[in-house]
Design a protein that fits this description.
globular; Rossmann fold; DUF218; alpha/beta; Rossmann-like_a/b/a_fold
């Protein structure tokens, strides 16, 4: 049976990682919104809200599938995001779909290539992601598209509300642990800029790995 609430014994460590990965950027008006594919339909909800608020003139949803999303979004992450945004009132002409990206680096590079091919000049972007992908997405974009201003956004949600919305506590914890590992690994491999990782974050990460949350480690 899938657990929909966090076990008490790991709550403090999960909260530590949850807080670390969110950057709390103030709302910004940018040239384009980029919705990063994942298992979280809240990305498309957030994009629709920001579009309605006039934060950008159009949004690019980017994402094919990963093992964690193929069942939830069988026609591709970006395609399902588009359909959800349309249902929330975003006009079709304000949505672009990039359906090939299979990781965050490809999200950035393929969107950059798509916009360049369309002759769209970009000086600033809003990266829209699941809450705990913000730090890694920002670091990746800074590495691969260094000349632009980058702002991050997600639906503002408490940890327990997010876990309940996803409906699978283990999935959320495994994803958080995996994203924490990738902060160091991707910087070392040249995929992202280096990020400071406080000691308390490293300690929380190690305890969760020791507790068995290793499904998303690389």
């Amino acid at each position: 049976m899938t657990a929909t609430a966090l076990p008490a014994g790991i709550r403090a460590d999960v909260e530590t990682l949850w807080g670390y990965h969110q950057l709390h950027h103030p709302p910004a008006t940018t040239d384009v919104g980029i919705g990063l594919g994942s298992h979280d339909l809240g990305v498309a909800t957030c994009a629709a809200q920001l579009y309605a608020a006039g934060r950008f003139p159009f949004v690019v949803f980017t994402g094919a599938n990963a093992p964690t999303t193929i069942e939830r979004f069988p026609r591709g992450e970006a395609v399902h995001y588009r359909e959800h945004a349309l249902s929330l009132g975003v006009p079709d002409e304000a949505i672009v779909v990039e359906p090939r990206a299979r990781n965050t680096g490809e999200n950035i590079t393929l969107v950059r290539e798509l916009l360049a091919a369309r002759g769209v000049e970009v000086a600033s972007v809003t990266l829209i992601s699941r809450p705990y992908q913000q730090r890694r997405a920002h670091a990746t974009c800074r590495k691969l598209w260094p000349e632009i201003e980058v702002y991050c956004a997600s639906l503002p949600m408490a940890l327990d509300d997010y876990v309940a919305g996803i409906g699978d506590a283990d999935r959320v914890v495994n994803m958080l642990v995996g994203d924490t590992q990738r902060i160091d690994v991707y910087a070392e491999e040249g995929f992202a800029i280096a990020q400071e990782v406080p000691d308390e974050v490293r300690a929380a990460y190690r305890r969760l790995v020791d507790a068995g949350y290793t499904a998303r480690l690389v």
